User: Fold these one by one.
Assistant:
Number 1:
Amino acid sequence: MDLNQLRTFVSVAELDHLTQAAERLHVSQPAASAHIKALELTLGIKLFERRPGGLALTAGGQELLGCAREVLAASTALCSKAREIARSVVGKFRLGVRVASALIPLQDLVRATRHRHPKLELEIRQLNSLNVVNGIQNGELDAGFALSRQLPPGLVGLDLRQVTYRVVAPV
């Protein structure tokens, strides 16, 4: 049994007419007829009786119609859920940040990440800049914030802002 057979069954049941159901489903009349025959064979029950002007559900067909609709609805829900999962970001993201860095609005970053990607687990590790770079290189971190003029080969950085550190001493 496949979903096309169930769709054909439900359409024929709603329209009481095989040709009209085939048109609704954009299949040929012989294909729709084959769907019904295959479904009847699989289920071991006759679903329709021929009547002048169309088809009518048998008593067994009437009992199975609700189940067929439920299966089709569940199939639609499954596809919808799969599309939602495919669009969502899932997993763990390990981010290294400098210890006590007031330069990064970390609370805003965490809040925005959780809002935008609720299924993403954000793990934040506070490290010095050298350990952030090393963590990315050895695969312990996925990304990080570091103070660094040059990065080792294989890493790329994005300048966020210029920071000026001054040595302060008495005149």
Note: Helices lie at 3-15, 18-25, 29-43, 59-87, 106-116, 129-137.
Number 2:
Amino acid sequence: MSEHKERIKLEDTIVSAVMKMSDGNPGALSTLMEIYSKNPKIDPDDIIQGFGPILHLDSLGIYGTDIYILHNDICERDIVKTLAVLRAVQLGHFNGAILKDACHRQDRSGKSMVPVDELYAKVKERLPNFNS
């Protein structure tokens, strides 16, 4: 198995980063822009603001259609839940490899692999400012 190589580079702007991450998928593009614009308010403890979850998706190797599946299918188009799941992985409450596998399932079977509400509760407990 080859090692994952991140796509976003230090010289990238938000536009170039989002283009690299979305793989031309309109749903992924829309999700990434929503993450970028809403994360600073939803997760004020994220020091990198709206860019934080996008960099985290890149580090997990979740791109294009898989980003759309995460937001649309697994998190039911709820950006707060999407951000909570990503933050839960970052905080060690959920395995990133399992999330990546779940996001790669286009038959919606990935939804049952991710305990979204439980992860939201864990993030909220650890980060009281999350979605306040």
Note: The mean pLDDT is 96.
Number 3:
Amino acid sequence: MSDLKHFLSPRLTGKRFDDHSVPVEILQDFVALQDLITEIAKNIYLEANPTKKRVPKGFTEGVTLNLEKVEDGSAILKFFLVTNLLASSILGKGSHQYTYFEKAKDKVIEVIRAAENDEEIKGILADKYLNYFNKIGRNLKEDETIFLNPESLNGSAKLNKRVRNKIMLTVSEDSTYKDEFKLTALITSIDKVDKTFTLLIDNQKLAAKLDPNNFKIVINTFTEFYSNVYVSVSGEGIYNQSDKIIKIDSISNIEILDPLDVSVRLNELAKLKNGWYESIGKAPSIDALVMFEGLYDKYYPENLPLPAIFPTIEGNIQLEWSVNSKEISLEIDLNQFSAELLSVDSNTSEVFEDLIDLKEESEWRKLNNYLL
């Protein structure tokens, strides 16, 4: 007969959790967390019972973290600890598995809180346990955080990319850590002898393995190098203390990007410097470009045509579409995120003008309907 007890209610924040749902890959992080807590619990038992050489039979059998439900509040996961081994003489009088697993959970929380506050980590857990963070938190995105104990009076332990990376750097012998990446790059060369190819990422060249899974797309993209054909590449890489990727370990996916890909174009515009046009062109604000990309990703449907994007001398951007017989432009003020829409129909010479407030979802719907 199994027993269960409420064990953990982490709160997840970030764009992906706004609708109170949790992507499957995030649950993989909690599988690794379960494994870590189990190993720590075994160690705590052995330290408390120095005459024992191993944990009692059944100590970890049937012990799992079960997700009961996802509650509102970004996303709050309700985990119960399920065990087949109730209070038993083999654990000692008055002892219970829960005791050791609760203490193990507290150790994990202590490590995360220490990393968050830039405090010493190594004295809390041995490196073999800290290495579990290679999997715990690796599926988080930059804007995401797991609050492991959000209701704690001592302050919640916040696990995010920065905290995870700090823990990984603590156990690294060469001050590096492994993490997943998704980058935009150009393919600059191919070495058929070594079976590698070179990616150019923000003026940095990195080599990657050329294998049957990516051979065709790499060859096709390389032949278009001088046409600035970009690829989106994802996989695992090695990062340094400055959170800069320095080596590509493996590639899980690579795909050719549309020449009008908005993310690529905005990244190019972010590199402009003041004076870019006849010494008078003003560079657009990088923060404003990032904010615009966020709005675009949120409110612009994939079924609509991609716009061509150009900088303006004033430091703003202009989007342009050709839709049937209409030539449409949208000049965006990056300070206010207001925009002037102008459409000219080449067949009828009809001119249409409108003002669009890009901070409002309803205004985006108005723009999108016009582009249909």
Note: Residues 3-171 form one domain.
Number 4:
Amino acid sequence: MKLNLAVSQPTTSQSVQFFESERGARIFQIPVEAFPGFWVYIYLVLVDDYQVLIDTGSGFGVSNEHLAHGMETVKLQYDPAVGLDHLTHILITHGHIDHFGGLPFIRAHSAAQVGVHELDLRNLTNTEERLAIVSLRLNRFLEEAGIRPQRRKELIQIYKLTKLDYVPVPVDFTYERIGMALGPFEMLHVPGHCAGQVVIRLHDVLFSGDHVLADISPHQAPERLVLNTGLGHYLDSLTNLEGWAGDISLTLGGHNSPILDLKTRLDEIRGVHHERLAKVAAILQEPHTVSEVSARLFEHVHGYNVLLALEESGAHVEYLYQRGILGIANLDDLEASDGPIPIYYQALDMDF
């Protein structure tokens, strides 16, 4: 099974794309290379007296350079009043580094107010603490997944690598505190991919961050790493979004192509996870660790994708275990151990 990741470079990677909402809001899609070969979209939105940036890129490598170039392109080709120094607000869709890491660069050129959901506030303002806590939980997860000590150390270093240079930035407001709305922008909390993930609705346009993407199913990790993530929360959030979205005609994600039929895309993503859950349940007719499940689901992965594959597999195993579909095959060894050991899961005699 191929691991679904937003790593491909857009065919229009150097081009700013223009969209317009049904009520005349102007939207500029700015592509930036967040990490080598990994592209993300930033959106500049001009509506009423608001000049809003939705997400910021990673701040890594050429990311800030691409953002500055995109802003200059909009200024020269569309509106001379555009600029980082003219921004009124920066809205962060979720607390992953490729979406907020450019904040220190922007802060040096802008007095715009920064907003994020409460559950991702620490990601922006206390990165060192968050890295320490998640690294401890990640180490235990990997140990129980069956990963050996040296490999665990390598994977944790990979996890930390792109986050260590980020300089915390103050946040001016959080979304729930302002009633999940800022002027014409409305937010819906959709935890799963990230604890504080939101989607943002403006007229008939939805900015989906990484909650809904074209062509790929957004990455999932087990909730044991970060509360309010996990596959169960994610699937519930898809349902909540479907009821809230209304007459959305265009969905713009943090990666990949625009989505013109949101409902169909939501059904497709549900289908991906249902199929993956069925495969995990089939694999676990015999006892296996999460790392063994991952090796069966995702072949030929390397570097950071190894960690993503383990987390994705762990999220699906966790979902089935929480719902009584799986049991622990080596429970006696677990009870006799003084510390974490590899856990072997096995499907119980229950229908999935």
Note: DSSP finds eleven helices and 14 strands in the chain.
